[in-house]
Amino acid sequence: xxxxxxxxxxxxxxxxxxxxxxxxxxxxxxxxxxxxxxxxxxxxxxxxxxxxxxxxxxxxxxxxxxxxxxxxxxxxxxxxxxxxxxxxxxxxxxxxxxxxxxxxxxxxxxxxxxxxxxxxxxxxxxxxxxxxxxxxxxxxxxxxxxxxxxxxxxxxxxxxxxxxxxxxxxxxxxxxxxxxxxxxxxxxxxxxxxxxxxxxxxxxxxxxxxxxxxxxxxxxxxxxxxxxxxxxxxxxxxxxxxxxxxxxxxxxxxxxxxxxxxxxxxxxxxxxxxxxxxxxxxxxxxxxxxx
Amino acid sequence: xxxxxxxxxxxxxxxxxxxxxxxxxxxxxxxxxxxxxxxxxxxxxxxxxxxxxxxxxxxxxxxxxxxxxxxxxxxxxxxxxxxxxxxxxxxxxxxxxxxxxxxxxxxxxxxxxxxxxxxxxxxxxxxxxxxxxxxxxxxxxxxxxxxxxxxxxxxxxxxxxxxxxxxxxxxxxxxxxxxxxxxxxxxxxxxxxxxxxxxxxxxxxxxxxxxxxxxxxxxxxxxxxxxxxxxxxxxxxxxxxxxxxxxxxxxxxxxxxxxxxxx
Lengths: 291, 263
Ligand code: SF4
Ligand code: SF4
What we know:
heterodimer; A: about 290 residues; about 0% strand; globular; B: about 260 residues; alpha+beta; four-stranded mixed sheet; 7 helices; binds iron/sulfur cluster
């Protein structure tokens, strides 16, 4: 038993709302990886993949901004996010990534739908594609730069979990939406993403002593990994079979949602129990004393 | 400027809690009996900027656990009481992560939220290693102790320190408070109170020292305080490095997936 004050939490539980913030994490990743995929599809002349990628990037980015604004205690003041640029605040840095990204992704999608200004659409698409990978991983720093033990301690793995999960989500939509002859790159993106997410996820669940417990216990994370692996497996058959592609794509997306909610919930859980604060901090003190 | 809270003379009267609410117009909460000794405040938060903790420890008088001090020899129960408050950290995580610039460092070295700027993003809430700042549900914005910024501006001491009848809460220049605390600690150690310790006094600790520090009679976690808090932004460069490598991994993966001839 760890000593504590009537078992009360030491930390404040994150005030962020569910599903707003986990959805914001998921959508941001989906948008970022889709934009990168669309830019490459554009460069290699895969029209259906470019089209679906651009539309998803714009839609998910807009929805992600919406979720972020909705979570604010004072939504009318959301523009205060861009009042300053603060390098010490991952949310400030993130807002300055998210704002131009959403603008560019929306411009690219607009040109895609209307057929107007294809040159501008292409440039915007490239811009969004370049910012895309940052969109996939900045949210990991957002979570890690808190006193929440499970989030902070896993800062080395979290960006890889999020980046990999963003890739599988983007691949998932592409498998559902892109034409069969354009599916090949999406399948590969899905496999690379799966490898990244699963490897980092396993490390996160084992590498941090008792702070890993909420991750190791999480049914959502297990489900997320299972679904992602299912998607990766099924997409082997996705070249020919439309049904396999559709099921694989859906599994990837569902897996992505489970993973984000799983990471979010595990962090909240670790903020509730004082032992996740006390035990590691005392351990730190001992090791720094004997050093 | 800051606080030194000497918990060894705290009598648990809660004058500080009341004075703080009065002066700062902090909303009351509904009567809620927590069943945790005489403490029905429970924790610091948006609506409680001072919180008096009550700890009842049973120390059977037959066994001497080496815990002298405030103790009733008859039933072997000792009382620990401590008035907790925002620590006004030298390296304050809440301030670091605030994206709007609403949280700022005042000319007195304290950490204050500007109510007209906060957009209620809630980032400061999980960032604080002491679990102090909180979003007020009825309002949407974040609130915490201001160390009576308005009173300091007028040359007054904070309301809680003014109200404290035993001088458990002392307000002043940090250097002077630290000296005073060191003297008090030495005196207690001389008396045999070997578990007495200062908490948050050391400018080299994980948060660069607390602007509000404490003299405790037991381990910090007994009072609901983290034993070795640190400001997570100290790891921020490494966090961004990992995120950048992962982002490059995503970029490389996407590019790679399009490589090779079309099939
Ligand atoms: S104790 Fe928490 S709320 Fe107070 S200054 Fe430090 S980090 Fe900010
Ligand atoms: S809730 Fe307000 S004070 Fe806290 S980080 Fe957000 S803008 Fe800053």
